[in-house]
Design brief:
The chain is mostly beta strands and 133 residues long. The protein is 9% helix and 41% strand. The strands form three sheets. Strands 1-2-3-4 form a four-stranded antiparallel beta sheet, with no helix packed on it.
Length: 133
């Protein structure tokens, strides 16, 4: 190469989607890496619930953002009253309620959760155990 040759590189701004690849939730393990809410994270906890009566097992991931150290979690998937699924609820921040939900899923119980909604936000605020599947 001569000194007079110039090399030009194009820089494209993107959301980073080309730098990720899809992976089945069941293959993700502790100490692996995933993207949650658009942030690169290292997985610190993985838990799964058993397949319910509608055929869907649920996975719960807790991960730490590799750049800012913030803890992130995936969303809770729920069955609505009319039989659809709701996948956009965060886990509650109340540790007692959170542990009750996790224990119920681990035991394969059917749970009814109360959801509080205001100004476009929703959060699980209560729980009722209605027994085993």
């Amino acid at each position: 190469m001569s000194d007079s040759e110039e090399h030009h590189f194009e820089s494209k701004a993107d959301a980073g989607a080309s730098k990720t690849y899809p992976q089945q939730a069941g293959t993700i393990r502790k100490n692996g890496y995933i993207v949650i809410k658009g942030r690169p994270c290292k997985v610190v906890e993985v838990s799964t619930s058993k397949t319910g009566k509608h055929g869907h097992a649920k996975c719960h991931f807790v991960a730490i953002d590799i750049f800012n150290g913030k803890k992130l979690e995936d969303i809770v998937s729920l069955l609505t009253e009319n039989g659809g699924t709701k996948d956009d609820l965060r886990l509650p921040t109340d540790e007692t309620l959170l542990s009750q939900i996790k224990a119920g899923f681990d035991d394969g119980k059917d749970l009814i959760v109360s959801v509080m909604s205001a100004m476009g936000e929703e959060q699980i605020c209560g729980l009722k155990d209605i027994g085993k599947n």
